[in-house]
């Protein structure tokens, strides 16, 4: 996505742990790490997985350049033997988890990473930084598109966040149901629909609003969208139709009481014969503002700050925990933390969703040994939620690129429809379905 090497997108302790385990011999132990969250953001009914494709892109580039090794050596972060080990690093493990666009709930095994301790521990910060942010944006986008009721939402949040995060947010917004982005780098990298025409400064730099509209239409055609709230909206709409004719593509309103203004503008456009001209509204929208506009004659929404900040929940509190590792004799042993309020469930996991009358009613997480899970038979009608992303170092490219993003958006839409309708409520509440965790006896 940007010009950086993902091998240093880490916390330092990942390398100090690697250094120590290479010296004591435990770096080669087979391990299973799991990504999950103990709770959803307060009041949210579901979460949305996003960022997996970006993670796989980063994993494909996870190789050490000479300058990276020099940095680690010169800063005395690791010793020479570890530098030699890193020089030939490649991830040979396997990764499986919830597909992008899928809903998750507390204790859902969102991602499971299996490989040697040395390989897996280096991926912790990279995995969490991508999934925590992208999933937060996708969840916000999902709530906004639900509130929009089939009216398209567009990402305009690039100027409200870090420049790298802007690209990630644009991608994640599509997973959550958005239709396009104003960010050209995201549009280029992921082949997304790019949107945008003009800001208020474009009107202000011209001698008159009419001159600005004439310039924009000359450059972009009659199907463009004109910004009509720089001075007086009623006069601007009248001028816009006079300049472009009734074929004017759209107008954008960026201030004021959007519902009442949209109604007045719609009536004015119709009276002027511009019955097919669309109305777009912007101005610091969130899901609640969008919901309040459901009865207004608005055709699309442009969303910025609240999208890229997760609409009040900018992270998902996902964690990356060791759940199984090989013992001295090579036998896999389930492990777990017992810390107060931070206990974990030992063992690798399966995940299913059950349904009643075609609506999801429970998430089922099954924990056990590999042998137990290989022979586990789910109940009839349970949906398997886990897919394979990486198999012994080989990345499955169906989960990367433009098509994967569009498929994730489609899957998200279908998955949301399969949840009880209260999932789409904007009122605070508990997760829309419970999670049942079963630890198989050893």
TrEMBL record:
Residues 153-324 form the Nicotinate/nicotinamide phosphoribosyltransferase domain. Its EC number is 6.3.4.21. Gene3D superfamilies: Aldolase class I (3.20.20.70), nicotinate phosphoribosyltransferase (3.20.140.10). The keyword Ligase applies. This is Nicotinate phosphoribosyltransferase. InterPro entries: Aldolase_TIM (IPR013785), N/Namide_PRibTrfase (IPR041525), NAPRTase_N (IPR040727), Nic_PRibTrfase-Fam (IPR007229), Nic_PRibTrfase_pncB (IPR006405), Nicotinate_pribotase-like_C (IPR036068). GO terms for biological process: NAD+ biosynthetic process via the salvage pathway. It is an enzyme of class 6 (ligase). Transiently phosphorylated on a His residue during the reaction cycle. Phosphorylation strongly increases the affinity for substrates and increases the rate of nicotinate D-ribonucleotide production. Dephosphorylation regenerates the low-affinity form of the enzyme, leading to product release. Belongs to the NAPRTase family. Keywords: Glycosyltransferase, Ligase, Phosphoprotein, Pyridine nucleotide biosynthesis, Transferase. Coiled coil: none annotated. GO terms for molecular function: glycosyltransferase activity; nicotinate phosphoribosyltransferase activity. It catalyses: 5-phospho-alpha-D-ribose 1-diphosphate + nicotinate + ATP + H2O = nicotinate beta-D-ribonucleotide + ADP + phosphate + diphosphate. Catalyzes the first step in the biosynthesis of NAD from nicotinic acid, the ATP-dependent synthesis of beta-nicotinate D-ribonucleotide from nicotinate and 5-phospho-D-ribose 1-phosphate. Pathway: Cofactor biosynthesis; NAD(+) biosynthesis; nicotinate D-ribonucleotide from nicotinate: step 1/1. GO terms for cellular component: cytosol. The keyword Heme does not apply. Residues 8-132 form the Nicotinate phosphoribosyltransferase N-terminal domain. It comes from Bifidobacterium choerinum.
